[in-house]
Amino acid sequence: MRTRLTEMLGIEHPVVQGGMQWVGLAELASAVSNGGGLGILTALTQPTPEDLEKEIRRCREMTDKPFGVNLTILPTIKPVPYEEYARVIIESDIKIVETAGRNPEPFLPPYKAAGITVIHKCTSIRHSLKAERIGVDMVSVDGFECAGHPGEDDITNFILLPLAARRLTIPFIASGGFGDGAGLAAALALGADGINMGTRFMATKEAPIHEKVKQAMVEASELDTALIYRTLRNTARVFRNGIAEQVLEIEAQPGETKFEDIRELVQGVRGREVYSQGDLDHGIWSAGMVVGLIDDIPTCGELIGRIVEDAEKIIEERLAGVTSARESAPKWRQAANESA
Ligand SMILES: Cc1cc2nc3c(=O)[nH]c(=O)nc-3n(C[C@H](O)[C@H](O)[C@H](O)COP(=O)(O)O)c2cc1C
C-alpha cells in the first residue's frame, strides 16, 4: 500500500504506533518499525531528557528503520522540562515527532530547522485546521473511540475523518478504534492516509507490559473502558477497573470535583505498576474501545502484516466485487447502470 503517509515517512505500511506513556519503549517502537510500520518512543516515559537520549540510542540498536518520538504536553502533577526533551530529540537526529496535548507552535521552528516531520495528534477538526495553519506536516485525528484523551466533543471517527478529508490539505492519519484490516480499509475509504493504533499494539508479544494486562485485553469487551476526568474537562478513556470505578463515583458526587479528591487514586506511578506487576486494579491504565476487537497476542510484525493483507483483500475482493457485480445485480440496478 502506498499513501502520502508511507511516502513522507519512508515506511512500508501505512500503520503507526502512537505514543504511549509507560508502554512506548524501544522494544515496542523497534518491533513496529521492523514490521514495516512507524514505531514511536514516548519521551515522557523516560524520567529525564538524558534517559530519552539513551532510549533513542537503544532503539537504534534494535532497528535500522525509521522511528519517531512522541512529546506530549499535558497538565502534569510535576513540572516537566519540555524544551530539554525537545532539544534531545533534535540533537539525536530524530526525523519524525508526534506532538500531542497543547498547541505545538512554540516547538515548530526548531523542529522545522532540524528537518523534522511533525505529526500533531488532534481530537477535533478545528484543532486539525489550526495545526495545518501553523505548519505541522500531518495530523493524527483521534476519534472519541480512542484510548487516552479523546477531548470533550465526543465525535466519532465516522464523522471526524470525512470532515478531515473535506477540509484538510495536509495528509492525515486515522486514530482511535483501529485494530484490524477492515479498520484500515475503512480509514482509507474515509480519506485517511493510514491508521494510528495504541491499544492494539499493547496486546502484542513485544509490548513491554505484563502478560496479565495483555490477557485482560484479549478477554475484555468493547464495554470495558470508562471515561474519567470528565468533570475536570480533561477526559481520559481508560480500562474500566476498580480504580476507574472509584474515580467515577467521586466525580458523580454533588459539587465540583477537585483533582485533590482523586490524586491518590490516579497517580502515574500506580498505573506504571499495573504494567510492570500485572495487578490490574492497582492504578489507572489507558485502553480504547478497540479492546472489544482484540482476541490474540501476535508479534507486531504479524499484526501489521495481517492488517495490511486483510485490508488489501477487502479492497480487492469484497469491495471490487461489490462494484463489478453487474451481472448479479438486481434488475433495477442493471437498468440504472444501462441508462447511466
Ligand atoms: C497505554 C496508552 C498510553 C497512551 N499515552 C499517550 C501519551 O502519552 N501521549 C499521547 O499523545 N497519546 C497517548 N496515548 C494515545 C495513543 O497514542 C493513540 O492516540 C490512541 O491509543 C489511539 O486510540 P486506540 O487506542 O483506539 O488505538 C496512549 C494510549 C494508550 C493505550
Estimate nothing, just give the exact number of structural domains. Answer: 2
Q: Average the pLDDT over all residues and give the rounded result.
A: 95
**Uncertain residue segments:** none
Tell me the fraction of residues in β-strands, as a range: 5-15%
| Helical residues, percent | 40-55%
- Based on helices, strands and strand pairing, what is the structural class? alpha/beta
Main pleated sheet: 8 strands, parallel
Q: So what's the overall shape?
A: globular
CATH hierarchy: architecture of the largest domain = Alpha-Beta Barrel
Tell me the series of helices and strands, N- to C-terminal. HEHEHEHEHEHEHEHEHHEEHHHHH
Cα-to-Cα separation, first versus last residue: 32 Å
Describe it.
With 340 residues, this protein is of the alpha/beta class. The protein folds into 2 domains: 4-209, Aldolase class I (TIM Barrel, Alpha-Beta Barrel); 225-286, no CATH class. It has 15 helices and 10 strands. The protein has helices at residues 4-9, 26-34, 49-62, 82-91, 108-113, 125-134, 157-167, 181-189, 199-202, 211-219, 242-252, 259-266, 268-277, 300-324, 331-339; strands at 15-17, 39-42, 67-73, 96-101, 117-122, 138-142, 172-175, 195-197, 225-228, 236-239. The strands form 2 sheets. The protein has an 8-stranded parallel β-sheet with strand order 1-8-7-6-5-4-3-2. Helix 11 (242-252) runs antiparallel to helix 12 (259-266). The chain is globular, with a radius of gyration of 20 Å. The chain binds flavin mononucleotide. Flavin mononucleotide binds at residues 18-21, 23, 42, 70, 72, 100, 121, 142, 145-148, 175-178, 196-200, 202, 286-288, 290.
